[in-house]
UniProtKB/TrEMBL annotation:
Native organism taxonomy: Eukaryota, Metazoa, Chordata, Craniata, Vertebrata
Keywords: Disulfide bond, EGF-like domain, Membrane, Repeat, Signal, Transmembrane, Transmembrane helix
F5/8 type C domain: residues covered: 24-177
Region (Disordered): 1150-1175, 1216-1251
Organism whose genome encodes this protein: Cairina moschata
Domain EGF-like: 549-586, 902-940
Domain annotation Laminin G: ranges: 183-364, 370-547, 726-901, 960-1145
Entry's Gene Ontology cellular component terms: membrane
All copies of domain Fibrinogen C-terminal, residue ranges: 585-636
Name the UniProt record assigns to this protein: Contactin-associated protein-like 4
Predominant location category: membrane
Subcellular location: Membrane
Superkingdom per UniProt: Eukaryota
UniProt entry tagged with the keyword Signal: yes
SUPFAM superfamilies reported in the protein's UniProt record: Concanavalin A-like lectins/glucanases, Fibrinogen C-terminal domain-like, Galactose-binding domain-like
Length: 1251
């Protein structure tokens, strides 16, 4: 599906998103002009007027002419005030006032709009009817900015409520601007053909946009086809828009041959609807009005064979696509944009790219059809008939969501009988009756409550009746009856008045709710305009000249695949076979884990679990082994021992594992569990796991993160070893796996993989079984998970009539190694439980329970007397009835309980800076700086180095592996999945040389990233993420940065979005065009590039100079290359060339070179502290406090003395070095080197101190 979708968009939609925004939004420049104040009085009209001085022409805002506003003759809900703006406008705001100096104002109203003054549409917000709040007095102005603009010529204000002590009174204004557009009209027999340029098909950003309006429920909007039955069609079907992509029958590929995506509903309402199809890289969006369907297209466009013609409105030469039965479009298009070109503008100017079939006009004709909305079951429309005629003939169209409702009723002339035409179970039925007897009950049609327009024709002549639905003779009925039917004087549509004796309307079902149009009596169309003006017939609770039907199932609020159905007033969800229940199929009927089933008393067996609860993932089947520990067992398709021969690197043995759940479901189950594991057994005979000669793995496995893993069962992800290598029990001590001994006898490396983030295993690759006597066998066990993270706290008590419970459920796990607050309370009236900031839960006291709890045992904290299911963790600040309990003293004499608590990271973890991770210690904490570019107790000490001429630091991302020329191709394929879509880079530097190369990252695919200083000293970032394109080049707008000062740079990329920050305040945003993925990264280089690299000229110039100066705190994602080179050179994959020495040049500058790092003091934690170590002892007492204060005072005095001495020494050293340096080197560079040397001397023996 994905590839075919991208075929369509690749070949079809080639217009920029910017053009779409311009077209759809209309005029976005200062669109807030007054549209009403300058109009003549003839532009105003209304339902009625109280007097000539209250006419609608006096309804301008802030005007006092006439009586100072419009008021109708009668104040009721059928009144309206209408304005003709003269031409279509974009309306962005409205404002209202009451009648000047009166008690007449409107407190709420509806806003309607139309292009023709007919077929109105109600302004809606969030798919629901929105009434505007009006005025509270006569003269204040109430202004509303519309959340989405209206594009129309006519607007109408419909009062809903008004001042009860006055009448309806309004003055109004509308704000906006004129709306310009290109339109074209189709008569249902024509089409427009556009032939486009083949050269424009290579872009990655494609968009097509248009608007359309029609009264027909079916018709082709656009079509494109090829020679072999391939075609693409955008078609209106039953009022919904369908995007159809069809591949011809002769294709020999595995993709589906047809894709059909449907959006929208009720699109045949003769109002404008927008269509947008966007394609950017692999992301595709298909939008109709405000509803969007997203695709993620992949693959090459190899299958769809299409011509370079696109037709709008129909198929010019049907036949090749087999679409002879499809109807052409009958209606209007507006603003068709394709490939950045206005198609309608080309057609208007008769350009050569455009040709026509049939008649096309450049205006939009509005059908003069007036629909009627029956708002409730009490609505009715009474129309007069000609009494006594022998023939009754009535026709109309209707649309509704209700299965039942009265459509038409009338008495029979000269008889006390009558007939009913009504909906029942979605069918149209006729009921003929006379007192005490039903003569017939016949039906036609089915499923007529689907929201579509349906036509009904009913005729009766004496004793012969006919009923035809949708002009379909197969669903028509004809019958003879024993009742003579003659025309009566009144026909009731939709219902009957409540007053009087209307026996012909008394039915077991309610009135009709829906829309009707094209009503005809006696073959004569009813003039609904006259009905609206009370000239003809009468009505109640109707909206005339609009159809107010809405689709409550769009969007579908039924979750988890629930089926949506609706009536006029509401929607319903059918949750059958979804695994969920509730009004919207939200609540799961299955438990989240086997542990939960065990708590319900279930035994071992197969169960459906819903691992994310009410989330989007569905339930799946697992086996629950409910022994002492409850295990969730998830099987895959290959648990047998499988033997492998004749596999090598060029022809590897690859096996994929398919589980009984999707990867998303598996991830949710793993995340929900406390522990997961999977046994992986690898049996070998002369089949190695690692090739010692080139350092490359010979076998590996892949988990759900799609990353290659080279550690095996019983080991951990951080080392490439097997279980025997961890335990030191391998059959040959020089190897870390038994199989690497390469013996001609069977051995194995078997164990459990238990790193949750990598599970489950989805693929195994074996390459070393093609030598003589070489063979391997593997077996992968099922995925096993156990334990639920605690997420609820229960307060249980018994006051004499059985246990009661109060439960607070947390959305997050409570075993997150953070402190949580719990407060439980019980009194005579109720019990309550509070957990953290969650809503407090209450439980009313039982009416017949004891007032006081009668407790006579000891208070057990953290467990029970039987020591079952004891608490493992920390408890502090325990209070009972307001009295604090000394848990620490009791812990000293209680077995299994210790004073103190390793919970310091929640309080002091923010002291670990620059990506350092807080780690708990028994009586304190420490900062783990492993993934930080900084060092020191709090990860605040900058790691800096001085780079001399030609020096280079190379960090190889393929840790522990070396690549020879013979294995380079394999290495490239093996690490092809090491793809980055985002990276974060931070560094600081000082230099006076230009051009300079600060950082370079290479890949096996000739992609690269370089950060350089150009010849003028500006910072430049160069990304080349497509080996076939030139690099993206981004230059920061900053002064020369080769000024010898320390500059900080941060680079953040996420796909095509690039953010650059310089010196923590200058921020810039850039967009990449060369790609979004950095594939198969190879190495990171600081300084000079020594390897052969295919880079651009500017990067090459910068590399030839290398870098001379100071680099500090360099970090690439979680890699810190400077730190690795200086502190872990023997174990890290680092190569250092040239003069490269550690320095403090990134920490100390100028006059502050004698300042040490900030120390931290805790008033509530004193005592003996190991120098430079974070919080090792959190206990305190009085003597410790006194001693700490004295120590602080003494230390401050010593510090002041030391600083004074150091400043004096530093000045002396600086002066000597500066003098010496000036004799040997150029002034600018020598000054920098001298300062770096001075700072390095001054910073010796610096340490962080923690108080």
């Amino acid at each position: 599906m994905d590839s075919v979708t991208e075929i369509f968009l690749k070949l079809l939609f080639l217009i920029s998103v910017r053009n779409w925004n311009m077209v759809v939004a209309g005029n976005k420049y200062n669109c807030d002009d007054q549209l009403v104040s300058g109009l003549p009085q003839s532009s105003f009209s209304s339902s009625s007027e109280l007097s000539s001085s209250h006419s609608p022409g006096f309804a301008r805002l802030n005007r006092r002419e006439g009586a100072g506003g419009w008021s109708p003759f009668v104040s009721n809900k059928y009144q309206w005030l209408q304005v003709d703006l003269g031409e279509r406008a974009e309306i962005t705001a409205v404002a209202t006032q009451g009648g000047y100096g009166s008690s007449d104002w409107v407190t709420s109203y509806l806003l309607m709009f139309s292009d023709s003054g007919r077929n109105w549409k109600q302004y809606r917000q969030e798919e629901s009817t929105w009434a505007f709040s009006g005025n509270t007095n006569a003269d204040s102005v109430v202004y509303y900015k519309l959340q989405h603009s209206i594009k129309a010529r006519f607007i109408r204000f419909v009062p809903l409520d008004w001042n009860p002590n006055g009448r309806i009174g309004m003055r109004i204004e509308a704000y906006g601007c004129m709306y310009r557009s290109e339109v074209v009209g189709f008569d249902g027999k024509s089409c427009l053909i556009y032939t486009f340029n083949q050269k424009l098909m290579s872009t990655l950003k494609d968009v097509i946009s248009l608007k359309f309006k029609t009264m027909q429920s079916d018709g082709i909007l656009l079509h494109r086809e090829g020679q072999n039955g391939d075609h693409i069609t955008l078609e209106l079907l039953k009022g919904k828009l369908s995007l159809l992509i069809n591949l011809g029958d002769d294709k020999t590929h595995s993709s589906n041959t047809q894709i059909n995506i449907t959006l929208g509903s009720l699109l045949d309402d003769q109002h404008w609807h927008s269509v947008l199809i966007e394609h950017f890289n692999n992301q595709v969006n298909f939008t109709v009005d405000k509803h969007t369907h997203h695709f993620h297209a992949k693959g090459e466009f190899n299958y769809l064979d299409l011509d370079y013609e696109l037709s709008f409105g129909g198929i010019p030469v049907p036949g090749k696509s087999g679409a002879l039965s499809r109807r052409n479009f009958h209606g209007c298009f507006e603003n068709i944009y394709y490939n950045g070109v206005s198609i309608i503008d080309l057609a208007r100017r008769h350009r050569s790219q455009i040709s026509f079939v049939g008649n096309i006009s450049f205006l939009c004709l509005e059908p003069q059809v007036i629909p009627v909305t029956f708002l409730s079951s009490r609505s009715y429309l009474a129309l007069p008939g000609t009494s006594g005629q022998e023939e009754v003939s009535i026709s109309f169209q209707f649309r509704t969501w209700n299965k039942e409702g009265l459509l038409l009723s009338s008495k029979v002339h000269r008889s006390s009988g009558g007939f009913l035409l009504y909906l029942s179970d979605g069918k149209v039925k006729i009921n003929l009756h006379k007192p005490g007897k039903t003569l017939s009950d016949i039906s036609a049609g089915a499923g007529l409550n689907n929201g579509q327009w349906h036509s009904v024709f009913f005729s009766a002549k004496r004793n012969r009746i006919s009923l035809i639905v949708d002009n379909d003779m197969t669903s028509s009925v004809h019958a003879s009856i024993s009742l003579q039917i003659y025309s009566a004087d009144t026909f009731y549509f939709g219902g009957c008045p409540n007053s009087g004796n209307n026996s012909e309307c008394k039915t077991s079902f309610g009135g009709f709710q829906g829309c009707m149009r094209l009503i005809s009596i006696g073959n004569k169309a009813v003039d609904m305009n006259s009905v609206q003006k009370n000239i003809f017939g009468n009505f109640s609770n109707l909206q005339i000249d609009l159809c107010g039907i809405i689709d409550r199932c769009l969007p579908n609020y039924c979750e988890h695949g629930g089926e949506c159905s609706q009536t006029w007033n509401s929607f319903y969800c059918n949750c059958t076979n979804t695994g969920y229940k509730g009004a919207t199929c939200h609540y799961p009927i299955y438990e989240q884990s086997c542990e939960a089933y065990k708590h319900r008393g279930n035994t071992s067996g197969f169960y459906n679990i819903d691992s994310d609860g009410s989330g989007p993932l569905g339930p799946f089947l697992v086996y629950c082994n409910m022994t002492d520990a409850t295990w969730t067992i998830i099987q895959h398709n290959n648990t047998n021992l499988t033997r492998v021969k004749s596999a090598n690197r060029e022809n590897p043995h690859t096996v994929f594992f398919k589980y009984s759940a999707s990867l998303d479901q598996l991830q949710a189950a793993i995340n929900h569990a406390e522990h997961c594991e999977q046994e992986l057994a690898y049996h070998c005979k002369k089949s190695r796991l690692l090739d010692k000669t080139d350092g490359l793995p010979l076998s590996w496995w892949i988990g759900r993160t799609n990353e290659t893993q080279t550690y095996w069962g019983g080991s951990s992800p951080t080392v490439q070893k097997c279980a025997c290598g961890i335990e030191g029990s391998c059959i040959e001590s020089q190897h870390y796996c038994n199989c690497d001994a390469d013996r001609n006898e069977w051995t194995n490396d078997t164990g459990f993989l238990s790193y949750k983030e990598h599970l489950p295993v989805t693929e195994i690759v074996i390459t070393d079984t093609d030598r003589p006597n070489s063979e391997a066998a593997y077996r992968l066990g099922p995925l096993l998970c156990r334990g639920d993270p605690p997420s609820e706290v229960i307060f249980s008590f018994d006051v004499g009539n059985g246990p009661s419970e109060v439960t607070v459920q947390s959305l997050t796990s409570l075993n997150d190694n953070q402190w949580h607050y719990v407060k439980a309370e019980r009194n005579i009236k109720d019990a309550s439980l509070q957990v953290d900031q969650l809503p407090q839960k209450f439980h009313a006291a039982p009416p017949d329970g004891h007032i006081r709890l009668q407790l006579n045992s000891q208070l057990f904290v953290g467990g029970t007397a039987s020591r079952q299911k004891g608490f493992l963790g920390c408890i502090r600040s325990l209070q009972l009835n307001g009295m604090a309990l000394d848990l620490e003293e009791r812990a000293k004499i209680t077995p299994g309980v210790e004073p103190g608590c390793p919970g310091h990271c929640s309080s002091y973890g923010n002291l670990c800076h620059n990506g350092g991770k807080c780690k708990e210690k028994y009586s304190g904490f420490s900062c783990d700086c492993s993934f930080s570019a900084y060092a020191g107790p709090f990860c605040k000490k900058e790691i800096s180095a001085y780079f001399g001429t030609g020096s280079s630091v190379i960090y190889n991302f393929q840790e522990y592996y070396t690549f020879t020329k013979n294995s380079s191709s394999h290495a490239s394929s093996f690490y092809a999945d090491m793809t980055l879509s985002r990276e974060t880079i931070t560094l600081a530097f000082r230099t006076t040389r230009t051009p300079s190369l600060l950082l370079y990252v290479s890949s096996f695919y000739k992609e690269y990233l370089s950060v350089i200083l150009t010849r003028n000293g500006s910072l430049q970032i160069r990304y080349k993420l497509d080996s076939h394109q030139d690099p993206d080049v981004f230059t920061t707008n900053f002064k020369s940065m080769a000024d010898g000062q320390l500059h900080h740079v941060k680079i953040d990329r996420e796909e095509e979005m690039l953010l650059v920050e310089v010196n923590q305040n200058e921020r810039m945003k850039f967009i990449l065009s060369s790609g979004t993925e950095f594939n198969a990264i190879k190495s990171l280089i600081l300084g000079k590039i020594l390897e052969n690299s295919d880079v651009d000229e500017e990067t090459m110039k910068a590399s030839s100079q290398g870098f001379i100066g100071c680099l500090s705190s360099v970090q690439f994602n979680h890699i810190a290359p400077l730190k690795s080179a200086l502190h872990h050179g023997s174990s890290a994959p680092i190569i250092v060339k040239g003069r490269f020495t550690e320095s403090s040049c990134g920490t100390l500058t100028g006059t502050d070179s004698t300042l040490s790092e900030t120390t931290h003091s805790f008033a509530d934690h004193s005592g003996p502290i190991d120098e430079g170590e974070p919080l090792n002892n959190a206990s305190r007492n009085d003597s410790a406090i006194i001693g700490g204060v004295i120590a602080v005072v003494i230390f401050i005095v010593l510090c002041i003395t030391a600083i004074a001495i150091r400043i004096y020494k530093k000045k002396s050293i600086y002066s000597k070095n500066e003098t010496k340096g000036s004799e040997n080197e150029d002034s600018a560079e020598s000054a920098l080197k001298s300062e770096l040397s001075t700072q390095n001397t001054a910073s010796e023996n610096q340490k962080e101190y923690f108080f």
